[in-house]
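Running log. JK asked me to keep both predictions on one page so they can be read side by side. First protein, sequence followed by its tokens:
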Amino acid sequence: MTEPSKVIHVRNVGQEISENDLLQLFQPFGVITKLVMLRAKNQALLQMQDIAAAVNAMQFYSNVQPSIRGRSVYVQFSSHQELTTVDQNAQGRGDEVSDLFLVLLEVALCITYIELNTLMVSLGNI
């Protein structure tokens, strides 16, 4: 078994499973700071705010088979201790890299991807 980590590796993540589905599965255990969907591999990596939150999630799901939309998913600690992202524009320049993780729940207005993109592009690369 891999040693405990803030990062949880989720397998059998089908195309019908959304980022929001994964967030709902793990939010009861604490704050999720990063989520990476690996669609081509039917996998996802998510990072909890601390190891304790990840351990609590893993302990719970060792006794209860997690499933999303009727599909069993399999969870384990990742070999990564932390997920890092690299801004291609900042590589080699020493610029600070920052991330914005945006989750829209229960959107009351109809907003298209293009409108959201137009709004967010002013903050930097998307």
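And the second, directly underneath as requested:
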Amino acid sequence: MAAAEDIGGSFERLADDPLAIAADEIGDRWVLLIVCASQRGVSRFDDFHRELGVARNILSNRLRKLTELDILRRTPVREGARRMEYSLTDKGLALAEALMPVRDWSRAWCGDDELRARLRLPLRVRSDANGGDQGLDDVMPPRRPFDN
């Protein structure tokens, strides 16, 4: 019984921890990558999809979540249009800035290409030496036969 009480106590402590609260709201890799892509100027659904390679249903869910959290603002491309553009709110801009040290930390400490391949993360930056964009197939490790 003491172990269960210890676990419950730690959950109560975590509920008051600002980092735990932030992780609960935005602790999904797609959410973080969407915020970073938005900061780089990506604003339309198809562009997020092309840039990140995220499944459309997941992207739709995360864009809705970020809009509900007031991290992204959703506006029609033009009056009466069905297509939407997404942009960072002040809250989103603050989050994007807060993620920069995490990106720096990752560059310094998470450079293991084997780990990146297992996670199916890009092995290198998306732009080539001439400043042109590469497709995700150019930067993603190949799928193994047992991958879905």
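Observation for JK regarding the second prediction: The longest strand covers residues 72-76.
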